[in-house]
Amino acid sequence: MLPYDRKLRERSQQLRKSMTVAETFLWSKIRLKQVKGYWFYRQKPVGKYIADFYCPKARLVIEVDGGQHFSDEIAEYDKIRNEYMASLGLRVIRFANAEVLTNIKGVIEVIERSLLD
What we know:
Blueprint: H1 8-17, H2 21-30, E1 41-46, E2 49-55, E3 60-65, H3 72-87, E4 91-96, H4 97-102, H5 104-116
Parallel strand pairs: 3-4
Antiparallel strand pairs: 1-2, 2-3
């Protein structure tokens, strides 16, 4: 079981209720073992962070990033976050909101390949 800050539980529940359009769209494609029979969680607390999506069997974190993630400040935060996830033995893949909304087939293909790595 992954460590997590119990204080994040309420925040993760709030995030599940207010997912972005891109997150909701991706969730509709990966939930209920639709991708190669793998189970995903959404807005899953992992350590001191909340992952957009997490697949425990593959130890894979999927992040869906809005435009703010392309600023230098947020990019540095994401780098630190990715390093933390890697220290737990997790792999992180990231997609931009626009990519999820305009190329869901390609996004799912990347996820499928990542599950098998």
